[in-house]
Amino acid sequence: MNKKLINRIFVSVISVPILILLVYIGKIYYLVFIIIVIGLSLWELLKLTKFPSIFLKISTILIASLSVVSLYYNKFEYVVLLMLLLFSINSIILMLFYKKNFINNLYLGIGAFIYPALSISALVLIREFPKLISVPYNTGWLLGILLFLGIWICDCCAYFFGMAYGKNKIYPSVSPNKSWEGTIAGIFGSLIVYLIAFKFNVINFFNFWDYLAMALITGIFGQLGDFVESKIKRTIDVKDSSNLLMEHGGVLDRFDSLALAAPIFLLYLYLRFVN
Predict the structure, then answer these.
(1) What residues of the chain score a pLDDT lower than 50?
(2) d(CA 247, CA 250)
(3) How far apart are CA 242 and CA 245, in angstroms?
């Protein structure tokens, strides 16, 4: 067994049980975990894109963290105010001290606030969703775990089936190893997860069509999220967002699929169940 595979297994064995436990516990513990994930993801993205000024990087992370806390306490209006604050700080600092590439950096700061910060924060709102519709709080951990499982199984099926049978590439200039065969296998893998969940009635307020919607959101938008991050990395010519997780790459590499699938799934939950 090669060293790279050993490192991947080691990180998975350590991280997956911790993640499952945090999703199960929820509340402030899961919130703090997601804030750490967002902070590290933001740092990786801003560092890779050469966003100027350590002060602006730290202020972006702090304001993003406050926004996640605001969402947790249902203070949605604060998120808008915090975004305006971030825009104002970036405008002043960039205009006074970093005039080169002013427009690009200005919108990079706001863009990073939206992705990955707000997009990943949807994971917190999914975990807390039962509070909005008066169902048992622990239902939220089932929603969260199913989303993670759907993404993981989708990725595994897409990777292994694509490696074995993939011939028709989707977007080789961005992700040369991804094929239509692997992508379709990933969607089917996600579908199997949610069909099993339907069989055992894991989410008691879901019907068959809700499970099907969840499978499609996970299988399609999860893989699109992977493409989005791959496009960013190809644009700046790097392989991973960092080497923090060894062979798994960086934190953003591990949450890229969720960064797109989670907000779409949260939107579905709101449209479907919140009156």
Answers:
(1) none
(2) 9
(3) 8
